[in-house]
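Person: Please comment on this record:
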Amino acid sequence: MKTFKLISLQLVKKEEWYDVPLVDGLIINKEDDHHSWLIEGYVDKSFYDIFHEASKEEKELLVQVVISKKENEPAPFKVKIRSLQTFDNHISVLLEGTLKRSKNQYAELLLDSLIQRGLSGDELMNEFRNGMVRKPRFNQTK
């Protein structure tokens, strides 16, 4: 197993990505035959209802996380909630799931979003280069 710092967490709800501000978090590559990952986020208690509902229904969630450094590109996962614990003002949510795409697809998703915005030529190239550095997040549920 390998453990990494969780930098950011987003989840998709009704086709929209929502930031889940982290107080702290970690992500573990279990390196097992199922390619499983564990994601633990320590977040504000205001997110309890969202995670509790998904847990009750045993719903799979789409999340995307940034691992280790804020410059790293977001990695999308399909996860289920394995544990949800409440504290005074925070909750700890433990997610288990699998990575959903390779790194090369991020460039394709970025390029597609820029083309959809109508960019071409030098403007497209400049925005693409900037986007690969900034790593903007956008809806990847298509």
User: Anything to note?
Assistant: The longest helix spans residues 121-134. The mean pLDDT is 88. The radius of gyration is 16 Å. The longest strand covers residues 2-13.
